[in-house]
Design a protein that fits this description.
Among the domains are: 155 residues, no CATH class; 37 residues, no CATH class. Helix content is 59%, strand content 6%. The strands form six sheets. A two-stranded antiparallel ribbon has the order 1-2. A two-stranded antiparallel ribbon has the order 3-4. The longest helix is centred in the middle third of the chain and has 76 residues. It catalyses: choline(out) + n H(+)(in) = choline(in) + n H(+)(out). This is Choline transporter-like protein.
Length: 754
């Protein structure tokens, strides 16, 4: 066959020029290739590597399951490394963790060591009143009931308070004071309340800490600031839970209606796609025109006496309203809007043919989904696979994090001991000289670890867990894209639609992708996973650098303003250079992050189109990606127009579905339509279920429209391939339908359907 078929007989602008001879040869070779035929396994090496990684991932999960113990996350651990509330242990009935001196949690070392430098024991209940050790010694001779209550918060049972306060503090047998607390997350935290706008604990604003000092509730709040915020939100959380318990079935009804609306919208796009687009475009032109008219009115009829001034006359002002009083400002706005209006009109004039083609392809995509409706169910399968991957990754990460034996470290209240953060043995710690060298030092539980080869590489295993998780997530998405592309390609390349569409096209395409193209899908997913892993590593290193740049905490809270850098010291001018270096490094980091983000978006786009070519021709990933890139590059202008028109229609559809369901939910939850239907009447926050319905409806619509977007991309690439492989002659007629050919003004051509 001659190469004349490569040039469109009906629209010379529709096909891009052939870049070089190799591109012409590839196009001639693909012309003789029929879709879906002569398939073989592609990228076998990558498939083998992918399977080996999955086997290693499964083995890692089994090893982590053997060594890990998720109870270490569920149950709190005392200073001896024992679980609180674990059955079959002495702490079975003591499920709450109690801090001897929670005020020490304000120490800056907490942020560094992630441990509060105070003794922690398991108790059955939290203290309910203010008591100090000194207050217990005197009443004990008359009535020992108070001491019986106080002694339950000591390390071991003590019959009477015979020891002095200094001995208690030195041996750390009992807390110096207790105060009203409540359990939260199985830990005792101060029972904060607000009385007349004042923060109180047990109706007190001050209390004695047991050492003769008067402390305020604000110090307690500083010790448990983050937990206090959670405690304040606990009541709100309960109300939100009540609202969900009342409205859950209405939420399900709303999501079901959203699913039906999304399905109807996709089916109706064949009739309303053009109407939606042109109404929007005319609306944009009208809005810009109104803006031009308004700017002209403000320019012609100034309302302010200073309107004759120029921007140069008034200079820089923080009040923007000053600029709106000038004629020059409105003239500039009018010029900008006029230029924008002209650009929009010119784009519509010169790209009108491509816009009509894009709208026709949108209608064709809607028709394809109507003939292959099973594709609308596929997002449920993708969600199922993604849920499995996420759950396995989370469980493996928890088991890896809880692997090992208890590791104890030395902690001191001030964090200034030379032995601080060193490992220790609690059984012999009191016999060493560390407690004398560092008064108040304790050997407390820190984390779980070990010295074996497995425990030394826990961080490496966590990184491997994350990497394979990213690989699997991208593979599941790639599998869905390739399966959907195969189903819609079967529709496009059918000789007579819908009679020649093969039975069960989605199931067939899914099996074909698994059987022949697992390696190619794994190859494309691997590239994305590497980029994402590099981005995550960069984010982690950036956070580590931010922490390392901060001043040492143990000096910040003790130093004056000069030491902290608030007041410049003499000879500190040399610090300007490091600041400039930090600014440059931050700028380079942001540039690198931006480049990686753009690279990920580009690879996603190329992979998506490569999967379409794999579904059509069954070639390996590299060749499919090259062919897809060449095809799109030759039609770059059509690709841009098609992408933007599709994005607009899909976003409009999502907003339409979510907006309709949101309006109905608002009317229902606010009792605006109680005459028609009786909704829930006792909601604390009606906007919580309302937002849930709106966001859920948007996600449901996104799931449906993602199928539609894949359909459009597949039909678009098939359409471009059809135009390059065929010329509309009797020997090589087009596979597309008559309506699209009419849009292209291709009268006189014949299709295989004819």
């Amino acid at each position: 066959m001659s190469d004349k078929g490569d040039s469109a007989t009906f629209d010379p602008d529709f096909k891009g020029p052939i870049a070089d001879r190799s591109s012409r040869k590839r196009r001639r070779r693909r012309r003789n290739e029929l879709p879906h035929l002569d398939r073989g396994c592609t990228d076998v090496l990558c498939c083998i590597i992918f399977i080996l990684f999955i086997i290693g991932y499964i083995l890692l999960g089994l090893i982590a399951w053997v060594h890990g113990d998720p109870r270490r996350v569920v149950y709190p651990t005392d200073s001896k490394g024992h679980f609180c509330g674990q059955k079959g242990t002495p702490n079975e009935n003591k499920s709450i963790l109690f801090y001897f001196n929670i005020l020490s949690c304000t120490s800056p070392s907490v942020l560094i060591n992630l441990q509060c430098p105070t003794t922690q024991i398991c108790v059955s209940k939290c203290p309910e009143k203010f008591l100090t050790y000194l207050e217990m010694q005197f009443p004990y001779k008359i009535n020992n009931s108070s001491w019986a209550y106080y002694s339950q918060f000591c390390k071991s049972p003590i019959t009477r308070p015979a020891k002095s306060l200094s001995e208690i503090v030195m041996n750390d047998d009992c807390p110096t004071a207790i105060f009203p607390s409540k359990p939260f997350l199985h830990r005792c935290f101060p029972d904060f309340s607000t009385k007349n706008g004042t923060l109180t604990v047990g109706n007190k604003t001050t209390f004695e800490d047991g050492t003769g000092q008067i402390r305020s509730t604000m110090e307690l709040r500083a010790a448990a600031s983050n937990i206090n915020k959670i405690l304040d939100a606990k009541a709100i959380g309960m109300r939100v839970f009540e609202d969900y318990a009342t409205t859950w079935y209405w939420i399900l009804i709303g999501l079901t209606i959203a699913m039906l609306l999304s399905w109807m919208f996709l089916l109706l796009l064949r009739f309303i796609a053009g109407l939606l687009f042109w109404v929007f475009v005319l609306g944009v032109i009208g809005i810009i025109g109104y803006g031009i008219w308004h700017c002209h009115q403000e320019y012609s009829n100034p309302q302010h006496p200073n309107s004759h001034l120029t921007i140069y006359d008034i200079g820089f002002r923080t009040d923007i309203r000053m600029y709106l009083q000038l004629k020059q400002t409105w003239f500039a706005f009018m010029v900008i809007l006029c230029i924008l209006e002209v650009l929009v009109i010119l784009v519509l004039i010169f790209l009108r043919t491509r816009i009509r083609v894009s709208i026709a392809l949108l209608k064709e995509g809607s028709k394809a989904i109507g003939y292959v409706p099973s594709t609308l169910i596929y997002p449920v399968l993708t969600f199922f696979f993604l849920s499995i991957c996420i759950c396995y990754w989370a469980v493996t990460a928890v088991y890896l994090a809880t692997s090992g034996v208890p590791i104890y470290q030395i902690v001191t209240p001030g964090g200034q001991c030379k032995h601080d953060n060193r490992t220790c043995n609690p059984a012999i710690f009191n016999k060493t000289g560390i407690s004398k060298a560092c008064p108040g030092a304790q050997c407390n539980f820190a984390f779980y670890g070990g010295n074996s080869l497995y425990h030394q590489h826990i961080t490496t295993f966590q990184m491997f867990n994350l990497f394979v998780f990213l690989w699997l997530i991208n593979f599941v998405i790639a599998l869905g894209q390739c399966a959907l592309a195969g189903a819609f390609a079967s529709y496009y390349w059918a000789l007579k639609k819908p009679d020649d569409i093969p039975p069960h096209p989605l199931f067939t395409a899914f099996g074909r992708a698994i059987r022949y193209h697992t390696g190619s899908l794994a190859f494309g997913s691997l590239i994305l996973a590497l980029i994402q892993m590099f981005r995550i590593t960069l984010e982690y290193l950036e956070k580590c650098l931010k922490v390392s740049r901060r001043p040492q905490c143990k000096t910040c809270w003790l130093s004056g303003p000069e030491e902290m850098g608030i007041i410049p010291q003499a000879g500190a001018s040399s610090a300007v250079a490091p600041d400039n270096q930090n600014n440059i490094s931050k700028f380079l980091q942001q540039c690198l992050k931006c480049c990686l983000w753009c690279l990920e978006k580009l690879v996603r786009f190329l992979n998506r189109n490569a999967y379409v070519m794999i579904a059509i021709y069954g070639k390996n990933f590299c060749r499919s990606a090259r062919d897809a890139f060449d095809l799109l590059l030759r039609n770059i202008l059509k690709v841009v127009v098609m992408d933007k028109v599709t994005d607009f229609v899909l976003v409009l559809g999502k907003l339409l579905v979510a907006g309709c369901i949101g309006v109905l939910a608002f009317l229902l939850f606010t009792q605006r339509i109680s005459i028609i239907i009786q909704g829930p009447t006792s909601l604390n926050y009606y906007w919580i279920p309302l937002l849930t319905v709106v966001i859920g409806s948007y996600l449901v619509a996104h799931g449906f429209f993602s199928v539609y977007a894949m359909c459009i991309d597949t039909i678009f690439i098939c359409f471009l391939e059809d135009l390059e492989r065929n010329d509309g002659s009797t020997e090589r007629p087009y596979y597309t339908n008559q309506s699209l050919l009419k849009t292209l003004k291709a009268k006189g051509t014949r299709t295989k359907k004819q």
